[in-house]
Amino acid sequence: MKAENFLPEDYRPAEDELFMNERQEEYFRRKLLNWKAELLDDSRDTVASMKDQTRNIPDVADRASEETDRSIELRTRDRQRKLVSKIDGALRRIDEGEYGYCSITGEPISLKRLDARPIATMSLEAQERHERGEKVHRKD
Fold first, then answer.
1. Which domains does the chain have, with CATH numbers?
2. What is the per-residue pLDDT across 46-64, written as a single tens digit (0 to 9) for each?
3. Other CB atoms within 10 Å distance of the CB of residue 21
4. Could you report the per-residue pLDDT of 93-138, keeping only the tens digit for each?
Protein backbone atom coordinates (compact mmCIF):
# COMPACT_ATOMS: atom_id res chain seq x y z
CA MET A 1 0.00 0.00 0.00
CA LYS A 2 1.47 3.36 -1.05
CA ALA A 3 1.60 6.37 1.27
CA GLU A 4 -0.87 8.39 -0.79
CA ASN A 5 -3.48 5.67 -0.21
CA PHE A 6 -3.38 5.99 3.57
CA LEU A 7 -2.35 9.57 4.26
CA PRO A 8 -5.17 11.09 6.34
CA GLU A 9 -6.35 14.58 5.38
CA ASP A 10 -5.31 15.98 8.78
CA TYR A 11 -1.91 14.25 8.88
CA ARG A 12 1.06 16.27 10.15
CA PRO A 13 4.59 14.83 10.40
CA ALA A 14 5.61 14.17 14.00
CA GLU A 15 9.01 14.02 15.68
CA ASP A 16 8.23 10.58 17.16
CA GLU A 17 7.95 8.97 13.68
CA LEU A 18 10.78 7.52 11.65
CA PHE A 19 12.27 10.53 9.82
CA MET A 20 11.22 10.83 6.16
CA ASN A 21 9.08 7.72 6.16
CA GLU A 22 6.61 7.22 3.27
CA ARG A 23 3.89 9.25 4.99
CA GLN A 24 6.20 12.21 5.59
CA GLU A 25 7.51 12.07 2.04
CA GLU A 26 3.97 12.01 0.68
CA TYR A 27 2.94 14.88 2.98
CA PHE A 28 5.78 17.08 1.71
CA ARG A 29 5.25 15.97 -1.90
CA ARG A 30 1.61 17.08 -1.71
CA LYS A 31 2.56 20.33 0.02
CA LEU A 32 5.12 21.13 -2.68
CA LEU A 33 2.81 20.16 -5.56
CA ASN A 34 -0.02 22.30 -4.16
CA TRP A 35 2.35 25.26 -3.71
CA LYS A 36 3.64 24.86 -7.26
CA ALA A 37 0.08 24.68 -8.64
CA GLU A 38 -0.83 27.92 -6.83
CA LEU A 39 2.22 29.70 -8.22
CA LEU A 40 1.52 28.50 -11.76
CA ASP A 41 -2.14 29.57 -11.49
CA ASP A 42 -1.04 33.02 -10.31
CA SER A 43 1.36 33.23 -13.22
CA ARG A 44 -1.34 32.34 -15.75
CA ASP A 45 -3.65 34.94 -14.19
CA THR A 46 -0.93 37.58 -14.48
CA VAL A 47 -0.28 36.84 -18.14
CA ALA A 48 -3.99 37.00 -18.93
CA SER A 49 -4.37 40.21 -16.94
CA MET A 50 -1.40 41.86 -18.64
CA LYS A 51 -2.78 40.98 -22.07
CA ASP A 52 -6.14 42.52 -21.14
CA GLN A 53 -4.51 45.67 -19.77
CA THR A 54 -2.49 46.48 -22.88
CA ARG A 55 -3.97 49.82 -23.90
CA ASN A 56 -2.96 53.30 -24.86
CA ILE A 57 -3.10 55.60 -21.84
CA PRO A 58 -2.86 59.25 -22.86
CA ASP A 59 -2.02 60.64 -19.39
CA VAL A 60 1.75 60.41 -18.80
CA ALA A 61 1.41 60.00 -15.02
CA ASP A 62 -1.18 57.23 -15.39
CA ARG A 63 0.96 55.47 -17.99
CA ALA A 64 4.04 55.69 -15.75
CA SER A 65 2.06 54.35 -12.81
CA GLU A 66 0.79 51.40 -14.86
CA GLU A 67 4.28 50.63 -16.16
CA THR A 68 5.62 50.67 -12.59
CA ASP A 69 2.86 48.27 -11.55
CA ARG A 70 3.73 45.98 -14.47
CA SER A 71 7.41 46.08 -13.58
CA ILE A 72 6.68 45.10 -9.98
CA GLU A 73 4.37 42.33 -11.17
CA LEU A 74 7.02 40.99 -13.55
CA ARG A 75 9.66 40.99 -10.80
CA THR A 76 7.25 39.11 -8.56
CA ARG A 77 6.62 36.55 -11.30
CA ASP A 78 10.36 36.15 -11.84
CA ARG A 79 10.83 35.39 -8.14
CA GLN A 80 7.96 32.90 -8.35
CA ARG A 81 9.54 31.27 -11.42
CA LYS A 82 12.73 30.76 -9.41
CA LEU A 83 10.63 29.39 -6.55
CA VAL A 84 9.00 26.86 -8.89
CA SER A 85 12.49 25.73 -9.87
CA LYS A 86 13.36 25.23 -6.18
CA ILE A 87 10.10 23.31 -5.67
CA ASP A 88 11.01 21.06 -8.60
CA GLY A 89 14.41 20.49 -6.96
CA ALA A 90 12.73 19.52 -3.69
CA LEU A 91 10.41 17.10 -5.50
CA ARG A 92 13.44 15.57 -7.22
CA ARG A 93 15.15 15.16 -3.81
CA ILE A 94 12.04 13.35 -2.52
CA ASP A 95 12.20 10.97 -5.50
CA GLU A 96 15.92 10.39 -4.89
CA GLY A 97 15.50 9.83 -1.13
CA GLU A 98 17.56 12.93 -0.24
CA TYR A 99 14.74 15.22 0.86
CA GLY A 100 14.82 16.53 4.41
CA TYR A 101 18.55 16.13 4.90
CA CYS A 102 20.95 19.06 5.14
CA SER A 103 23.08 19.43 2.01
CA ILE A 104 26.02 20.58 4.18
CA THR A 105 25.96 18.29 7.23
CA GLY A 106 23.81 15.39 6.02
CA GLU A 107 21.79 15.67 9.24
CA PRO A 108 17.97 15.75 9.19
CA ILE A 109 16.40 19.19 8.79
CA SER A 110 13.79 19.76 11.51
CA LEU A 111 10.21 18.94 10.55
CA LYS A 112 9.15 22.39 11.79
CA ARG A 113 11.59 24.04 9.37
CA LEU A 114 10.51 21.81 6.49
CA ASP A 115 6.85 22.50 7.21
CA ALA A 116 7.51 26.26 7.21
CA ARG A 117 9.94 26.18 4.26
CA PRO A 118 9.53 22.90 2.35
CA ILE A 119 12.25 23.88 -0.16
CA ALA A 120 14.90 24.16 2.59
CA THR A 121 18.15 22.40 1.74
CA MET A 122 20.04 23.21 4.94
CA SER A 123 19.36 22.81 8.62
CA LEU A 124 18.75 26.07 10.46
CA GLU A 125 22.22 25.95 12.00
CA ALA A 126 23.94 25.34 8.65
CA GLN A 127 21.84 28.09 7.03
CA GLU A 128 22.85 30.56 9.74
CA ARG A 129 26.55 29.64 9.34
CA HIS A 130 26.20 30.04 5.58
CA GLU A 131 24.60 33.48 5.94
CA ARG A 132 27.27 34.63 8.42
CA GLY A 133 29.94 33.49 5.96
CA GLU A 134 28.26 35.46 3.16
CA LYS A 135 28.32 38.62 5.30
CA VAL A 136 32.02 38.20 6.04
CA HIS A 137 32.92 37.63 2.38
CA ARG A 138 30.54 40.16 0.87
CA LYS A 139 32.15 43.15 -0.79
CA ASP A 140 30.21 46.38 -0.27
1. 15-137 (1.20.120.910)
2. 766 666 665 677 777 877 7
3. 12
4. 999 999 999 999 999 999 999 999 999 999 999 999 999 988 876 6
